[in-house]
């Protein structure tokens, strides 16, 4: 297992390097630059600004300078938010996205797995139809529709919950964003879970367990859950990275200071260092969580060994 | 135009010291104030910086106006009022002497002196500061500003000198009668030397920042909120009513509207146009529309065929039904534009242009004839791309205008939208035929608009080049006679009407939602709002 983890780590380095290189040059090839604005600057003023941020040097030199700083853990200054470095901004935003994302994730897994299992056990009954049509609705309604509707009902109409803001992550500020974010995941998880549970419940070892006279709940918890959850786990790995690095839609609608907003504004403003920094962050997290999923496989399924 | 209580007359006649009025929250008798005076404002986008010498955008300026106080300030109707300078004088519009306000203090208790301004102006033009607004000092023609920005002269040579703690002398290259009105722009704000030097790039952080405005920086969470609290040291602190101001960077207009309706903010940054009619009906007291000194226009690339032909430009411009755009496509109170300079600009009286007086039918008939003369007709229709930056409103207008062109002239304009930075790049490179554009005045004077079309202006993306126009604009800067200058501007507008390098479409308004219990909301045409002038009424 240690050897496996070590191997994955080594593989991650070239993957990240390719990612950084491609993103670096793609950003530079995009039209405009961080300092192009509607009021065009006199050439000398522009040159002064570019000199300050090292943009006057050849691109290839900028690239190696970037790598040099990156090795030291420095993601550089933000070109847009001039009073902050990318490290500071990410350090401020990541906990926000992670807190909302992790909460939504845990709830989505809990409800998704429970509801999916329930639907599978009551296959083709009204409960199954009810849950699955609910899940279908959850999958097709995008968060940019769901979130404003939640705001309309609970903030403007009933005035129970705030329509936005973060306030250090106080519970009442998290309720609507978390709901807005998790509905889609609950639905997807429930649908995957139902399908795989039905398959497992029809297999020979479950029939044997039933023949032994074990109770249904014992069978589900001790025999069926583990094999049935595997497809959900492979779905969750990449989904987890997406969910904790923030949703642009949810963050914009609720005015949350997370990673999603930084990413979009970074791209629109040609904030080179911000976009690169976040790409590296998301890339590194994706690699990490894919590795974790592989390890989880081995834990859950005894047939898989590394 | 009653509002044209002219700042020109203010600054030109300022040969004698002014001890004019100062503006602050004026709560009318009988109005009961709310117990909690905490104002929350939507602010469009996250600020790029809170360093006055590194900013260029509107969201930044909104916050800076509360934090810092320049030599002068912009009054509720756009007039120039004394602020950190109590008075000023000039005899030749070339050398200005400012007398500092006695008793003005920084938030740490240090006195605000002329030396602070000398330091600030020099810092703003210093190439090392790399201020995106350094050009503003060049435009204000402060002596040596240009050479310093170009790196040929030492920063120390900027002709801004503190004679003593109370006297600041600014010398210009040439007479500029409206110089003082340029000084309420936030790029001319002072900064506290000791803290800038002590904290370097981190001086704008809460805890580090020392400011001289009515408020000081309390907390700052990027992409969530900036909170300012009352500056007890501010010289007019006794008149300030609002204790705490929060700025929320809400980029989505719909989300901002929802926050307003949920009673979480008192004042929005803007409002979604598609909800305007409904909001106006349901919350008539909350919808506030004020004039804004800016013009929305279509720009012709005069270096590209056939837009080098004045007949083609004129034909296209005439065919745009401005009334329909302003009243039906937008409908928030925007006014149709027949001149490049908005009518509400201080000291500007637009001379009626002949074509503006015609009916739309007559205009289209003229346009048809002009276009035919230029060689375009049904068999040989004019075809080009109409460029705009991605936005619902620009798209709506582009669809309307292109169908007017199609219907009236048989012109085939293909809509092309580009993301903001790409669009800017295309415009700067001259990669366009006709492009949507907009311009908001930096200061309340016609030159802030008209100089844009001078041949050497870096923002003249359509490369319009008229020696006669350039000469008029150059003359307007030298003359000391306000009547002569107003005449120059009118003639300049007449040339634009004839040459039609741009087709003005409508004049901007500021439309936002404001709680009816927010008192002191002014009518400022530059949208220069100061929280210290406002108060929350008990409701």
Describe this structure in a few short sentences.
Chain A has 12 helices and no strands. With 306 residues, chain A is an all-alpha fold.
How would you describe the overall organization of this protein?
The complex is a heterodimer of chains A (306) and B (539). Chain A is mainly alpha-helical. Chain A has twelve helices and no strands. In chain A, helix 4 packs antiparallel against helix 9 (216-244), helix 5 packs across helix 7 and helix 8 packs antiparallel against helix 9. Chain B has 539 residues and is an alpha+beta fold. Chain B contains 17 helices and 18 strands. Chain B has a six-stranded mixed β-sheet with strand order 12-16-11-15-13-14. In chain B, strands 1-10-9-8 form a four-stranded mixed β-sheet, covered by helices on one side. In chain B, helix 13 links the parallel strand 13 and strand 14 (412-418). In chain B, helix 9 packs antiparallel against helix 12 (360-373) and helix 16 (467-478) packs antiparallel against helix 17. Chain B is globular. The chains are: A mainly alpha (306), B alpha+beta (539). The interface between A and B is large, with 51 and 52 residues. Chain A: Residues 94-293 form the ABC transmembrane type-1 domain. Chain A: It is a multi-pass membrane protein. Chain A: Keywords: Cell membrane, Membrane, Transmembrane, Transmembrane helix, Transport. Chain A: This is Oligopeptide ABC transporter permease OppB.
């Amino acid at each position: 297992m240690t050897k496996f983890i070590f191997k994955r780590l080594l593989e991650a380095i070239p993957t990240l390097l390719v990612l950084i290189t491609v993103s670096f040059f793609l950003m530079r090839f995009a039209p405009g630059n961080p300092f192009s604005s509607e009021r065009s600057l006199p050439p000398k003023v522009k040159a002064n600004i570019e000199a300050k941020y090292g943009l006057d040097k050849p691109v290839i030199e900028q690239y190696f300078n970037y790598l040099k700083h990156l090795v030291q853990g420095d993601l550089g200054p933000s070109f847009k938010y001039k009073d902050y470095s990318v490290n500071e901004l990410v350090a401020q935003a990541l906990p926000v996205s992670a807190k909302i994302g992790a909460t939504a994730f845990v709830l989505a897994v809990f409800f998704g797995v429970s509801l999916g299992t329930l639907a599978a056990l009551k296959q083709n009954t009204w409960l199954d139809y009810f849950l699955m049509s609910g899940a279908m609705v959850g999958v097709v309604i995008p968060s940019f529709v769901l979130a404003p509707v939640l705001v309309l009902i609970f903030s403007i109409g009933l005035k129970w919950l705030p329509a936005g803001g973060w306030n250090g992550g106080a519970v009442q500020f998290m309720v609507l964003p978390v709901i807005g974010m998790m509905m889609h995941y609950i639905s997807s998880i429930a649908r995957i879970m139902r399908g795989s549970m039905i398959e497992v419940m029809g297999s020979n070892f479950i029939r044997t367990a039933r023949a032994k006279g074990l109770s249904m709940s014992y069978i589900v918890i001790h025999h069926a859950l583990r094999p049935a959850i595997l497809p959900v786990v492979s779905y969750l790995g990449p989904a987890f990275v997406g969910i904790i690095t923030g949703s642009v839609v949810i963050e914009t609608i609720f005015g949350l200071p997370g990673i999603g907003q930084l990413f979009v504004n970074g791209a629109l403003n040609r904030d080179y260092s911000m976009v690169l920094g976040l790409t590296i962050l998301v890339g590194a997290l994706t690699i990490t969580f894919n590795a974790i999923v592989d390890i989880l496989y081995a834990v859950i399924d005894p047939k898989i060994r590394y | 135009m009653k509002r044209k209580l002219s700042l020109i007359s203010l600054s030109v006649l300022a040969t004698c010291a002014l001890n004019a009025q100062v503006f602050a929250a004026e709560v009318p008798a009988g109005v009961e104030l709310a117990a909690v005076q905490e104002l929350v404002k939507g602010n469009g986008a996250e600020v790029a910086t809170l360093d006055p010498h590194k900013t260029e955008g509107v969201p930044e300026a909104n916050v800076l106006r509360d934090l810092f106080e320049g030599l002068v300030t912009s009054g509720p109707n756009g007039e120039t009022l004394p602020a950190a300078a109590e008075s000023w004088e000039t005899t030749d519009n070339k050398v200005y002497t400012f007398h500092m306000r006695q008793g003005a203090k920084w938030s740490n208790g240090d006195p605000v002196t002329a030396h602070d301004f000398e330091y600030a102006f020099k810092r703003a033009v210093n190439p090392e500061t790399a201020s995106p607004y350094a050009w503003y000092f060049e435009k204000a023609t402060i002596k040596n500003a240009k050479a310093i920005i170009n790196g040929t002269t030492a920063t120390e040579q900027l002709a801004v000198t503190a004679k003593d703690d109370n006297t600041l002398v600014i010398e210009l290259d040439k007479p500029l009668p409206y110089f003082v009105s340029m000084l309420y722009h936030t790029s001319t704000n002072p900064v506290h030397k000791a803290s800038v030097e002590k904290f370097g790039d981190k001086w704008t952080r809460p805890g580090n920042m020392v400011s001289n405005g009515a408020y000081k920086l309390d907390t700052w969470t990027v992409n969530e909120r900036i909170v300012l609290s009352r500056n007890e040291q501010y010289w007019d602190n006794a008149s300030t009513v609002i204790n705490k101001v929060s700025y929320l960077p809400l980029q989505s207009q719909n989300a901002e509207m929802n926050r307003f309706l949920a009673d979480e903010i008192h004042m929005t940054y803007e409002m979604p146009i598609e909800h305007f009619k409904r909001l106006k009906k349901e919350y008539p007291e909350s919808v506030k529309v004020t004039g804004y000194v800016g013009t929305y226009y279509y720009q012709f690339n005069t270096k590209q065929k056939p837009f080098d032909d004045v007949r083609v430009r004129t034909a296209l411009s005439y065919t745009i039904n401005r009334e329909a755009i302003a009243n039906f496509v937008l409908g928030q109170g925007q006014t149709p534009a027949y001149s490049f300079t908005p009518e509400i600009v201080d000291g500007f009286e637009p001379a009626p242009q002949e074509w503006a007086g015609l009916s739309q039918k007559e205009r289209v008939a003229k346009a048809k004839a002009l276009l035919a003369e230029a060689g375009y007709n049904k068999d040989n229709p004019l075809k080009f791309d109409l460029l705009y930056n991605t936005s619902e409103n620009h798209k709506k207008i582009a669809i309307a205008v292109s169908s007017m062109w199609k219907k009236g002239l048989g012109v085939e304009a293909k809509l092309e939208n580009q993301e903001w930075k790409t669009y800017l790049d295309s415009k700067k490179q001259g990669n366009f035929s006709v492009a949507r554009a907009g311009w908001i005045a930096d200061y309340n004077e016609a030159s802030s608009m008209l100089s844009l079309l001078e041949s050497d202006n870096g923002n003249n993306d359509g490369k319009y080049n008229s020696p006669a126009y350039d000469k008029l604009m150059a003359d307007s800067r030298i003359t000391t006679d306000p009547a002569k200058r107003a005449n120059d501007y009118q003639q300049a507008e007449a040339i634009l009407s004839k040459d039609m390098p741009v087709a003005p479409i409508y004049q901007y308004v500021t439309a936002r939602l404001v709680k009816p219990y927010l008192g002191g909301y002014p009518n400022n045409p530059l949208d220069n709002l100061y929280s210290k002038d406002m108060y929350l009424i008990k409701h």
